[in-house]
Design a protein that fits this description.
Helix content: 25-40%
Radius of gyration: 19 Å
Oligomer: single chain
Strand content: 25-35%
Length: about 150
């Protein structure tokens, strides 16, 4: 009976530790956009769409909990009356940058886990045309999120 109790306690400790460790609070930073005059007007629509696409990728892959304001997260932000008394601090952040020159853009995503060093734990980058369809951008961002977490 003692062995069964000990074994049950070990299984419970392992399971509860695994559940706690699998939940990440992830903050998605505002994208950094660098563009020449030819692509500046195209990129004005992307900052919010980029954050939303990253948040969607994080949720779809069950990577963690997204912190911050996106359309789907309004009820969990400071704008909400039902906000918990303590705002959670992110365990890690996803940073994005789009740099465009002559209609060709480089999309870079970085996963940063150490707030002090700002060094990315992992990164992903892909070349895109500035006028690529929103679906193409969304697909590239989703691939990037998967690459950041090696899924």
């Amino acid at each position: 009976a003692l062995t069964v109790i000990l074994l049950a306690a070990l299984v419970w400790a392992w399971w509860s530790g695994a559940v706690v460790n699998s939940t990440r609070d992830i903050e998605i930073m505002e994208p950094e956009l660098v563009a020449d005059d030819a692509t500046q007007s195209v990129l004005r629509v992307y900052p919010h769409a980029i954050r939303t696409a990253i948040a969607t990728g994080v949720r779809e892959e069950s990577i963690g909990v997204v912190l911050g304001a996106t359309d789907n997260d309004i009820k969990h932000t400071a704008l909400s009356a039902s906000l918990p008394s303590q705002v959670p601090v992110a365990d890690e952040r996803i940073m994005s940058r789009i740099e465009c020159r002559s209609q060709l853009c480089l999309l870079r995503l970085q996963r940063v886990m150490d707030n002090a060093s700002e060094q990315p734990a992992t990164s992903f980058q892909v070349a895109m045309f500035a006028d690529a369809s929103p679906e193409s951008w969304h697909t590239a961002i989703k691939q990037g999120v998967r690459a950041l977490y090696a899924l």
